[in-house]
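FAQ
Q: What does a multi-component entry look like?
A: The components come first, one per line:
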Amino acid sequence: MVGVVLLAALAVTAALSLSLGAADLSPHAAALSVLSRVPGLGGLEPGLSSAQQTIVFELRLPRLALALLVGGALAIAGVVMQAFFQNPMAAPSIIGVSAGASLGATVAVVSGVSIGVAGLGAVPPAAFVGALLATGIVYVLSRRGGGTPVGVLLLTGIAMGSLLSAAAALVLVTGQDPTRRDLDQVVYWMLGSVAGRTWGHVLLLLLYAGVAGALTMLFARELNVLSLGDDTAHYLGLNVEQVRLTVLALASLLTAAAVAVSGVIGFVGLIVPHLMRIVAGPDHRVLIPAAGVAGGVLLAMADVLARLIAAPAEVPVGIITSLLGAPFFLYLLHRRREYGM
Amino acid sequence: MPEVALEARGLHCGYDGRLVLSGVDLALAHGEFAGLIGPNGSGKTTLVRALAGRLPAQSGEVLLDGAPMAAMARREVARRLAVVPQISTPPFEFTVREVVAMGRTPHLGRLQAERAEDREAVARALALTDVAALANRPVTELSGGEYQRVVIARALTQEAPVMLLDEPVSHLDIGHQVEILELLVRLNRDEGRTILAVSHDLNLAARYCDRLIALEQGRVVASGAPEEIITDALIERLYDCAVLIDAGPTGRPRVTLLGGDAR
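Then the predicted structure of the entire assembly, as tokens:
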């Protein structure tokens, strides 16, 4: 049931995302033009000009695919981090993990190492290292006697996030050609955007996030048990330290892959796991795929808004997710009975 | 099969350099129902965690069925030894059934779906602990006593021959206390399960356990039948509190508190 609703939302989102923007196309024609490229459906006649075809295939389709993958990766990373910290307020952008990935990525971009797909080969591994270090530091600093209290985790994460974001911004600004510093680029990175990306970016993300997402599914049962607490997980036969390290690496990899292609997009990793726990339940065997799809839908819809809200200009999609996510976060904090300070 | 199910030999354990257990020697025979008593801070919970392999021994060792536990795979240990820890409600809204079904984790492969035998074990544990009516409720909405029974149900689904329980009835009303303890007696008598339960309630411990083990400052200071352990001298020494001990109507020792002034 949840699956059907999510897939329907996915289809609607895809149609809107392909048709809305600076050049309006009908959703029908946009969808037909994509379907006509599917082998065996060549007889469909979408009736789009070749310029419109280019818009669909070289601009909007990769952008849609990227938004779906980034949103899905961030949402799954949020699910895993909440189980890892046994704390439903954990999320990559909130506890500084995205900022860590961002710092790693900016160092790689500015240092000009360019290998592999889309000249981006060095960025995801560097982002991964940054994300892993940030998570590890926040974890060590916020641990109090076998748990991570909400208050300590959030404050530690906020401080780490501020520090790492500032460092990333500094690297971006000072790393540019001093004669023509472009702060727009910094803004787009710090707020996160999926605009202007190519199929190369999509392939890169598909590789990293696809592998990490599939591996995360293999750990669904362990994540269930882990969210009951370390002692209980141990008593139920888990090798707790080994599982913790593995899922930490997977969450960091998912975050890093998303950040490497789109900058820091906030709150998707918080909102989506929460909503999906309500509609699909906390069992990770269902929660992970549900959050993956819903995260993609949320970000793709936010991206449609980002294109329309100030048309013909665009805003970074991270502004939209923060406008939606920050009030949601405040609501969750307000609703909690105890803050665990 | 060796006669001893679970054994600690010269066990030293602690946290951050502070030693809590300083040389515990303890052997649980197969089919035994033992109670662990002792004042706050004597190391009862630490001993349970150490016996379950959760705390590494600084020296000494824990043997499960005669083999060093530290060298065994975690899953294998969890199939043979179930633990009911002191409860703390989880942060996520799993249903009672989902939490209890997690007790099957050591019996299931990574991608294996639950089999009929797994579902039967879950249904049986839900019924035995009187939480079947709560099966679809989120555990976050339960009272302490209800969740305590859920945790016991989860341990039962592990179907492990040895069970360690850390204050399993501390949050329960007297009706459910007796119900759970009599369930443990049945599991012990009818299925031959080996049980070690920590208890602060000396009367319940004396009433239901075959043997009591007294812990003081990280050492076993006495071990024997309830009549041998529940004595004025030992109880006053352990708890620094005056008591009157007589034979209760059940035939087991009965402890009446007299308070600190009565000495």
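Q: Is there any commentary attached?
A: Sometimes. For this entry: The radius of gyration of chain A is 20 Å.
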